[in-house]
Amino acid sequence: AQTVTQSQPEMSVQEAETVTLSCTYDTSESDYYLFWYKQPPSRQMILVIRQEAYKQQNATENRFSVNFQKAAKSFSLKISDSQLGDAAMYFCGKGGSEKLVFGKGTKLTVNP
Amino acid sequence: GAGVSQSPSNKVTEKGKDVELRCDPISGHTALYWYRQSLGQGLEFLIYFQGNSAPDKSGLPSDRFSAERTGGSVSTLTIQRTQQEDSAVYLCASSLTSGRVYEQYFGPGTRLTVT
């Protein structure tokens, strides 16, 4: 069975600083997709960033970027210049030929 | 509509009653998921529909839980004889698949409270 592990239940960062959220996964596939979702207190899940495993270049979306290490099966999310609005639960997910699987989430607190 | 919709947004029910939660996925999305999320917790997978294949029911916590997807579109999650521990937010998501599983689009959820 596929597994996605987020080893940090909670993280905190100072406003304007950078924080990295960790995610590792287990798979036997060579072609798959990785995602980071954000869930603010409003509870609406929002896709933050998406990475296709066949692409070597790390995905970037404005202040959000990933460090994708395929051999290590690692997919961390870096948030630069953190803002108060970044405070949320962050979920890492993996999709491919089987159903999409999520990690248990990391709660990010942004301190002013 | 443009996104995934769920109804009702909130539901309060008495212990022992049956409830039905509805999900309208994005048109054309062949995959549909149901999750349960307790307060401050992660996503608990419940059930997964993919096209005409038999659903993956491996996450349903008990036989009181069931789900249907009619015509490959709308889905209904039914909880029979509700218990207080069923209180949670129930999230639905849909996904476009063409042999691969792409990102999910989530609905706003239904908050279920069992009194």
Key structural traits:
A: 112 residues, 0% helix, B: 115 residues, mainly beta, six-stranded mixed β-sheet, globular
Your description of this structure?
The complex is a heterodimer of chains A (112) and B (115). By secondary structure, chain A is an all-beta fold. Chain A contains no helices and twelve strands. Chain A is globular. With 115 residues, chain B is an all-beta fold. In chain B, 0% of the residues lie in helices and 50% in strands. In chain B, the strands form two sheets. In chain B, strands 2, 4, 5, 8, 9 and 10 form a six-stranded mixed sheet that branches. Chain B has a four-stranded antiparallel sheet with strand order 1-3-7-6, with no helix packed on it. Chain B is globular and about 40 Å long. The N and C termini of chain B lie far apart (33 Å). Classes of the chains: A mainly beta (112), B mainly beta (115). At the A-B interface, strand 5, strand 10 and strand 11 of A face strand 4, strand 5, strand 8 and strand 9 of B.
